[in-house]
Amino acid sequence: MLKIEKFTLGPLATNAYLLTNELGQGIVIDPGMNPDMLLERIKDLDIQAIVLTHAHFDHIGGVESIRKSKGCPVYLHQIETEWLENAEYNGSLLWPEVGPPITTDPPDVWLEEGQALTFLGETFQVMHTPGHSPGSVSLLWNDQLFCGDVLFRMSVGRTDLMGGSSKELYDSIHDKLFILPDETVVHPGHGPGTTIGYEKQHNPYV
């Protein structure tokens, strides 16, 4: 059984997730800005991958420091490949008061709809869930869903940034996330966790 740890990073309080097994291996999902506490936690771990739900700057600020220190590949949907290298695309140029422009090397592996990834001896299903950004993905492991900025507790991701679409976001939530079992635990990119069942009943945006 994997252990899930959450680290709230950077000025936008972005949730990064560390999943580990009993062998001292792990993967990191969305390592955000100012990742010192995360880097300290993983210093003695074998990090096998960095998985990005999307490439907005507040979710990628720790990518290079972890990739270089751990020598692990970075996974991202192909649509947003250029976003890692382009501070305009990833949004870090839009909020200079938050921090300097962020750029990283390209991803090592592309994610795509329906892909089954094997990490830490477990299988993760990739769902392409655009709307907040065109390459947003959600990662499902058993009854645990890591959905980036697609769905929050009683809220949803904004759609006014580059490539955003309210219709696509609505379709992603209803056609892919809301067909999951109600007990599915949602680990969002910001804020507290929730469940699919709770959001179906209480989320005023969907």
Identify the CATH homologous superfamily.
Answer: Ribonuclease Z/Hydroxyacylglutathione hydrolase-like
Order of helices and strands: EEEHEHHEEEEEEEEHEEH
The largest pleated sheet is described as: 6 strands, mixed
Determine the number of helices (DSSP H or I, runs of at least 4 residues): 5
Sheet with the most strands: spatial strand order: 1-2-3-4-5-6
What is the CATH topology descriptor? Metallo-beta-lactamase, Chain A
Amount of beta strand? 25-35%
CATH class identity:
Alpha Beta
Radius of gyration: 16 Å
In the predicted model, the low-confidence regions spanning at least 5 consecutive residues are none
Distance between the termini: 32 Å
- Which of globular, elongated, flat, extended, rod-shaped describes the shape? globular
CATH architecture: 4-Layer Sandwich
Tell me the helix content: 10-25%
Cofactor: Zn(2+)
Protein name: MBL fold metallo-hydrolase
Domain Metallo-beta-lactamase: 13-190
Catalytic activity: 3',5'-cyclic CMP + H2O = CMP + H(+); 3',5'-cyclic UMP + H2O = UMP + H(+)
Describe this entry's structure for a reader.
Helix content is 18%, strand content 31%. With 206 residues, it is an alpha/beta fold. The chain has one domain (3-202): Ribonuclease Z/Hydroxyacylglutathione hydrolase-like (Metallo-beta-lactamase, Chain A). The strands form three sheets. It has a six-stranded mixed beta sheet with strand order 1-2-3-4-5-6, covered by helices on one side. Strand 2 (14-20) and strand 3 (25-29) form a beta hairpin. The longest helix has 12 residues, at 166-177. It is globular and about 40 Å long. The mean pLDDT is 97.
